[in-house]
Amino acid sequence: MARSTARKRALNTLYEADEKGQEVLSLLAERLLRPGAQTPLPDYAIDLVRGVAEHLHTIDGALDAHSTGWKLNRMAVVDRNILRIATWEIVFNPDVPDRVAIDEALSLAKSFSDSDAPGFIHGLLSAVSADKEQTLITESEQAESEQAESEQADSGNAESEQAESDSAESFETENNPTLAPEQEAHIESVPFETSTSDSAANAPLQPEPEVSRDDDTRQNV
């Protein structure tokens, strides 16, 4: 009985999110934070809502693959979410026998949907149950593919960043050339040469020769 109540509460949350077009986990967080007049959600109801949200792509894919005549987006909102709850239990919760999950879904359909819903839901969930191993394989392959794509994207980003770094270093080198160590050593070993004019300008002054009196006498003769 406790799990039957939890399924009803989970259906209520999933139905409301679907009707509003709101993200399921966002609405669940609101319900957990502010339960309002309702009693807190049972733990199993939380497990159901989170499980459906986590595997929604796989669940909807399995239902669409086995549905004849009605695709998931054309089904009544209540039927669609009853099917989602039961499919999660069948495929992803080994603690619940498939027969129990289907019977509980039929009980919800009789309480909340029209008279045609139980027969349709029974046939569709029976097909999902028969093919659940393939559904798990499909999800695993999809997860591996997404991981490979993510790793490839990360690798591409790293290569792009390295190329940008190399380009920046090359640009800096071209615009700010530096001498190799042997060039610097050669420059330091070259002696400093001065020009002739500089040498002459820096030479010490020579004293003028003294003129003797005899020289003056000769000049006056």
Features of the shown structure:
221 residues, mainly alpha, N-utilizing Substance Protein B Homolog, Chain A, elongated, disordered C terminus
Number of strands: 0
Shape: elongated
Reading the helices and strands in chain order gives HHHHHHHHHHH
Proportion in helices: over 70%
Helix-and-strand structural type: mainly alpha
Q: How many discrete domains? A: 2
Provide a concise account of the structure shown.
The chain has 221 residues and is mainly alpha-helical. The protein has two domains: 2-130, NusB-like (N-utilizing Substance Protein B Homolog, Chain A), CATH 1.10.940; 136-175. 75% of the residues lie in helices and 0% in strands.
Give a verbal description of the structure.
The protein starts with a helix and ends with a helix. The longest helix is centred in the C-terminal third of the chain and has 44 residues, at 132-175. The chain has 221 residues and is mainly α. It has eleven helices and no strands. 75% of the residues lie in helices and 0% in strands. It has helices spanning 2-20, 24-33, 43-54, 56-66, 77-92, 98-112, 117-130, 132-175, 181-189, 196-202, 213-220. It has two domains: 2-130, N-utilizing Substance Protein B Homolog, Chain A (Orthogonal Bundle); 136-175. The chain is elongated, with a radius of gyration of 45 Å. Residues 137-221 are annotated as: Disordered. Belongs to the NusB family. This is Transcription antitermination protein NusB.
